[in-house]
Amino acid sequence: MEKKDLPNPRIAALLSFVFNGLGQIYNGEIKKGLTLIFLSGVSLLILIIGAIFIFYFLKALVSIGFLIWGVCLFFFGLIGIIIIGIYSISDAYNKAKKICEGNDTTS
Predict the structure, then answer these.
(1) How far apart are CA 9 and CA 15, in angstroms?
(2) For 6, which DSSP code?
(3) What's the distance, CA 27 to chain centroid?
(4) Given pLDDT bands bounded at 50, 70 and 90, which one contains residue 7?
(5) Tell me: the pLDDT tens digits for 30-86?
(6) Is residue 20 a contact partner of residue 27, using CB atoms and an 8 Å limit?
(7) Are 62 and 49 in contact (CB under 8 A)?
(8) What is the pLDDT of residue 3?
(9) Please, what is the Cα angle at 25 between 18 and 22, to 5 degrees?
(10) Cβ(75)–Cβ(50) under 8 Å?
């Protein structure tokens, strides 16, 4: 592989920072990138559902169960987004660095 065809670790990390999974796709790991995009979407959906439960509790003053479920779902989704984001950025950077150094054994 020529030097100009090698992925830049900084660009890979930046792409994953902008949108989880894009750095993996940039590095040629399409399946992993799509999986991270899917997991990010699921985490975001969980966060939104939690926010809706909290809003519904505050607006309609329904049972405390809505608030408890809302808070749990909101924080579960938020933690998922954070963990996936950190993993996506660090994995994209490290993989691109390994490819550039010629230590990549999987491609």
Answers:
(1) 10
(2) S
(3) 16
(4) confident
(5) 999 999 999 999 999 999 999 988 888 888 777 888 889 999 999 999 999 999 999
(6) no
(7) no
(8) 61
(9) 10
(10) yes
